[in-house]
Amino acid sequence: MTGGGAPAGAYIGRFAPSPTGPLHAGSLVAALASWLDARAAGGRWLVRIEDVDTPRCIPGAGEFILQQLAACGLVPDAQPLWQSARGPTYQQALDHLVAEGAAYPCACSRKDIEKAQLALGHARERHAALPYPGTCRHGLNGRAGRSWRFRVPAGLPPTEWTDRRLGAQQQDVATDIGDFVLRRADGLWAYQLAVVVDDAAQGITHIVRGEDLADNTPRQILLQRALGVATPQYLHTPLVCGDNGEKLSKQNGAQALDLGQPVRALEQAARALGLPALAHPHNTCSGDALAQWVRAWSRNYNGPS
C-alpha cells in the first residue's frame, strides 16, 4: 500500500475530531494548535471527522463541529473527510496486511484476555488494558475468529520517535500492548488502522493532537511501516483538565463551546498553549487574534521539524 503523499517540502496538517458531541475547551486546544502549526508553516490544514465508532457518534455532531470551527475562523483547506465512508479502503489495507502475514484473525474476548493474563500472574490495573497474550497468534484452534489483529514483529526493539514538544519517546509495543486490534469483533474498524490509512491517503506530514493520544503513536508507526507509508512528524499538546484534575472530555461533562463568543473561547485555548493574551480581547476579531497567535506560534515552535 502507498499513501497519497505530498510534494517535497509541503506541509499538510489535520484536525480529526470524533463526533461524539460538540467541541469543548479541551478539543479546541488541539484544533487551534494544529491550525496554527499549519499556518505558521505556510501549509494546508484539513479536517477529518472520525466517525467509525458509530455507536458512540451522535447524529449531527460532525456537522455541528464544523460549524463551531468555522465560527472560530478555523476553516479547512479542503472538504472534510468522513471515515464512515471509507470502509472499502480500510478493507484493502487489512487485506494487504493479511497477505503479508502482518495480520491474523482472533477469537478472544476481553474476558478471555483477562483470564489468560491472570494465568500468567498479571492482574489488570485500574483504567489500563491488559496486553494481548498472543493466544491466537498461531491459529484459532477450532474457534471462530471475532476480530483481526496486527502481528507485532517478533524480537522487535522498542519503537522510538521524537515528539516536537515531549522530546524523545519510546514504547515496547510487544510487551506493553501486544498484537493490537485492526477490526473489532463487532465489525467496526479500529482507530489505529483507520487513522494510519487516512493520514497516508491525505498526505499528512505533521500531526498535532492532544497528549492523551501520544501512546497511540508507536502502534501507528508500526502500521505505517507495515503498509509502506510515511511517518509524519508529531506534536502532542498539553491536556486541559477539569476541576477534578482529570482530562476535560465529553465523558466527564465538558461543556460545549459558546459559539456566541468565539474570541473568548480561542483565547482560553491559546492560554493553554502558552500563547500571549490579547491586548484588547473585547475589540479584537477572531481573524486578528489568529494572526497574532500564528506569529507567536512561529517563535515558540520555530516552525515544523
From TrEMBL:
Mind giving the lineage of the organism this protein is from?
Answer: Bacteria, Pseudomonadati, Pseudomonadota, Betaproteobacteria, Burkholderiales
Pfam families given in the database record? tRNA-synt_1c
Q: GO molecular function terms here?
A: ATP binding; glutamate-tRNA ligase activity; zinc ion binding
Domain of life of the native organism = Bacteria
Say what the protein does: Catalyzes the tRNA-independent activation of glutamate in presence of ATP and the subsequent transfer of glutamate onto a tRNA(Asp). Glutamate is transferred on the 2-amino-5-(4,5-dihydroxy-2-cyclopenten-1-yl) moiety of the queuosine in the wobble position of the QUC anticodon.
GO cellular component terms given for this protein: cytosol
- The residues the record assigns to binding Zn(2+) are 106, 108, 132, 136
- Residues where L-glutamate binds: 14-18, 50, 191, 209
The prosthetic group or cofactor this protein requires is:
Zn(2+)
Known EC number: 6.1.1.-
Give the protein family: Belongs to the class-I aminoacyl-tRNA synthetase family. GluQ subfamily.
Q: What is the protein named? A: Glutamyl-Q tRNA(Asp) synthetase
Ordered alphabetically, the record's keywords are:
Aminoacyl-tRNA synthetase, ATP-binding, Ligase, Metal-binding, Nucleotide-binding, Protein biosynthesis, Zinc
Which HAMAP family does this entry report, sorted A to Z?
Glu_Q_tRNA_synth (MF_01428)
Enzyme class, first EC level, given as a word: ligase
